[in-house]
Amino acid sequence: MPAPSPRKFLGRLSLPERTFVANALRAETVGGVLLLTAAIAALIWANAPLGNTYDTVRDFHIGPASLGLNLSLQHWAADGLLAIFFFVAGIELKRELVAGELRDPRAAALPVVAAICGMAAPALVYLVVTTVGGGDTGGWAVPTATDIAFALAVLAVIGTSLPSALRAFLLTLAVVDDLFAILIIAVFFTSDLNFAALGGAVIGLAVFWFLLRKDVRGWYVYVPLALAIWGLMYNSGVHATIAGVAMGLMLRCTRREGEEHSPGEHIEHLVRPVSAGLAVPLFALFSAGVAVSGSALGQVFTRPETLGVVLGLVLGKALGVFGGTWLAARFTRAELNEELTWPDVFAVATLAGIGFTVSLLIGELAFADDPVLMEEVKAAVLMGSLIAAVLAGVLLKLRVRTYQALYDEEERDEDQDGIPDIYEQDNPAYHLRMAEIYEKKAAEHRRLAEVAGATRADGDGPA
């Protein structure tokens, strides 16, 4: 019996998967630029002469105290708006599990192992640095997250067009990363439980699931129910963002006969702009405003907690993701796409060291009892993400011509039928259309040559 052929790692995506990845990353890129803008605005505001107004606005409380929801604007952004971000993450995860890269256990092994190693290595780096330096080990989870929107914003700024396989790998890696970040938040950052509120949230989720299964339609049904579930989850002691991901995972992401889009895809298309264009940038605006000075930046590289965060993001992420990918490929006998090299994988692994949104959130949770250290850790997240972005930019620029050539080949559509030519090479109809196109071009060249020859014969042009 012949041995099965080796599976291709970072090979060409199917056309539907490529289309989905392109659309998802296009929205994330726009959101990433807005996120970057909001973070810069927060830093400028917090360090301006009227920087005290930043703290005043951020700490302004609003909401019904009777429902336990009289929160500061910063908490509304972290606990409320980020629930929308995690709702979209839940839909993305569900889609990956039923229709994407994670549906095939063999194909899923690479991004899952890469994501696990990409979270374990930064945590280990942080623990080693803080243990040796005598620091607080409670922030071990801060450098474990990857911010896909910020990473794509970096790609947009440096102008690198990654091949679709590398972009899909980065997206899948971030989706799995989000899953484990959610588990970390749920397990390690849950305060004293209010079982009555938690029970109410669970009942609400059961009603949400039942209505979905009965194909009940209407935003006026689900939006109030989702708000009630979120409020109960917040008061239960479990981080409120868990409600978002739980509801996202319940949506159906497979298409039935006659459906152009599944309910999950449709809702994700509606909610993603709110998440990327409003929720995440506002969170960044109220979380990234840290005081930056020479002494503060010096402490980033001298205090064990902040140094652990920086090294975890820059070194831990890159080595963890790359090492996990290489090991998984070796043991699953997957062959790397011959058009790419392992340094390309390392460049993407370095890009995964940009851990902004979720890292800031975990930093707030881990050091809630020490506001000074919390602000220093936020500065470390910003510094580590910046270093990772610059390093990844340099590595990707070294291969930009190769990436651009691969990207152009994927996008080429000479017959202009809306389907890239690379997906039609085995289609006889495609070759017939291309022959007609080339024949028309050849005929046009012959006609121009005849006109030029006639002009010279008449003596009106150069002999």
Mind explaining what this structure looks like?
It contains 17 helices and four strands. The protein is mainly alpha-helical. The chain has two domains: 8-189 and 239-411, Na+/H+ antiporter like domain (Na+/H+ antiporter like fold); 425-457. The protein has a two-stranded parallel ribbon with strand order 1-4. Strands 2-3 form a two-stranded antiparallel ribbon. Strand 2 (61-62) and strand 3 form a beta hairpin. Helix 1 packs across helix 5 (148-158), helix 1 (15-47) crosses helix 6 (164-188) and helix 8 crosses helix 9. It is globular. The relative contact order is 0.15.
Care to give the gist of this entry?
By secondary structure, the protein is mostly helical.
Low-confidence stretches: none
Strand order across the largest sheet? 1-4
Task: Please give the number of β-strands.
Answer: 4
Gap between N and C termini: 71 Å
